[in-house]
Amino acid sequence: MGLDAAFATLPDPGSYTFPDPSIPQGDPVMPVALTSDELDALLDLYEVFVAVDPTGIDTNPVLQATSQFLRETFGTSLERPDERLHDDIAGMLNDFSDDLGGESIGVVDATPAHHRTLYFFLGGCRAYHVAPHVGFDPPVPAVETLAAVFERVREQEYYLKRPGTVLE
Length: 168
Prior knowledge:
Elements: H1 3-8, E1 27-35, H2 36-50, H3 61-74, H4 83-100, E2 105-110, H5 112-130, H6 140-155, E3 159-161
Antiparallel strand pairs: 1-2, 1-3
Helix pairs in contact: 2-4, 2-6, 4-5, 5-6
């Protein structure tokens, strides 16, 4: 398939809107099938993705000195803009791993937050790949797996997990 074809499945950010999961009295989830091989591919892609430093904070001595100055002077430091995304991806992969429970295949419950995280993970991979200064060359099968999982989540309908009743 190739990286260009995998990245082509990502909807245009200007036209894509996330579905509104405002279903009362319950947790909206989208159950999708996932294999342990797919989860392993996503984990491998995550490791490659986290290793990228698109801002250069880790390698640029001027930014390091600025960060140290801010930390010493104001008690704050420069943060990479993708650190929150890293945390969200790690949380999503942990949730998927917990849902799989060590089985070779299973159904994971993708929440609306997971849906957004998959979208931004795929978009981040595409952005890193096309940026010439970053040099991000992810494994093609892992990106294809991420695109496939995103498509499965995107095509799935919401259902209520732990639905409440009118008596509660």
